[in-house]
Amino acid sequence: MSQPRTLIISPNWIGDAVMAQPLLQLLRAAHPERPIDVLAPPAVSPVWRQAAEVDEVLETPFRHGALQLKQRWQFARLLRKRGYVDAYILPNTIKYALIPWLAGIKKRVGYKGESRYGMINVMHHDEVPPRPMVPFYAALAKPPVTVQGPGLRAALPRPRLVASAEQMAAVCERLGIDPARPVVALAPGAEFGAAKRWPAQHFASLAKAVLAREPATQIALLGSPKDHTACAEVAAGLPDGTAVFNLAGATSLAEAIALIARAAAVVANDSGLLHIASALNRPVLALYGPTDPDHAPPFSDLAASISLRLDCSPCKQRECPLGHHDCMVKLTPDLAWQRLQPMLAAG
C-alpha cells in the first residue's frame, strides 16, 4: 500500500494561498510523517513551491469558472492512485469539492460554501462576523466547533515562505539589479480593483523620501502586466538617474518572490505581493483603504499597517462608491514615511 498522503486544494488567489499556509504547519505538526501535496492553479502554484511543508505541487488543468465535469472526473481518477487519506478543500465552490469526492478520499474537510453537503464530510461553519483569514483557514486543522468566538482561537503560526540565496542571486543577475545595493520594492497594484490602489504619485513621493535617505537604493516596481501603467507613473515621478526597475509583467511570480526576499523593505497595497512579503518576513508597510487591516494583516517582525479608518471605510468595494477615494488619497506620503523610515533604519 502506498504511503498515506494529505491533499490541500489551494485557494485561487495569491494572498489567500499565503494566508492558508499556517494550516499546513499545523497539519505537519500533527502528522510529521505524512507527505502534504497541494493542488493549485498555475498562477498560484509558485507560492506553494516556497513553502517548506509542501512535498509536491500539482497544478490544476481546469479553466477558471468552468465546471468541466468530465475533466474533473478524469483528474480525480489520477488522484485516487496517490493514496490520499484526507483532503482539505479551501475554495468554497462545489466544483473543487467534487474532485476529492470523485477521487474517493475518505476524509474531506472544508467549509459549507455552496451547500456542499456530502462532498464535505467534516464540515466547518464560519463565524459572524467573519474571522481574519489566517484563523479562518487554520481552523480546518481542528475538529469543527459549535461554539464560536475569539476565545477559541489559540496562538497560531504565522504564514511562512522561504527563498534560497541561489534564487535571489539568479533574479538579481537576470534583471540587472546590483546585489551590493539596497532594494526597496513597491507594489502599486491590487487585483481587487482601483479602490485598493494608493495613488501612483504618492508612491513616487515616498520613493523620493527613500532615495533622499539613501541615494544608492534601487527601486523595484512589482506587479502583474495590468499594473505596468501604474508602475510607469511611479517611475516617471522619480528623479533622473534613479535606479528604478518597472518589473510589472516582467517577472514570473517565482522571480517576484525571490526579489521580495532580497528587499530591504516592501510597500504595498492590500494585495498578494503584500502577503508574500509578510510570509518572507521582510519589513512591510501595508496600505489599506476600502479593506479591513485587521482581516488580512502582515505578520513580519517589522510590519506596519496604515488605515485612516474613515467613517466610509472599510466599504469593501472595487470602486469608491462616493467617488472621492479619500481613504487612499488622504493617506499621505508623509504619514507613510513616518512608518517606513524606522524600518529602514532598523535594517
Would you kindly provide a written description of the structure presented here, covering whatever features stand out?
Belongs to the glycosyltransferase 9 family. Its EC number is 2.4.99.24. It is a single chain. With 347 residues, the chain is α/β, with parallel strands linked by helices. The chain folds into 2 domains: 5-150, 3-Layer(aba) Sandwich (Rossmann fold); 165-346, Glycogen Phosphorylase B (Rossmann fold), CATH 3.40.50.2000. It is built from 12 helices and 12 strands. The protein has helices at residues 14-30, 45-49, 69-80, 94-102, 133-138, 165-175, 200-213, 228-236, 253-262, 272-279, 326-329, 333-346; strands at 5-9, 36-40, 56-59, 84-89, 107-111, 122-124, 183-187, 218-221, 244-246, 265-269, 284-288, 303-307. Strands 3-2-1-4-5-6 form a 6-stranded parallel sheet. The chain has a 6-stranded parallel sheet with strand order 9-8-7-10-11-12, sandwiched between helices.
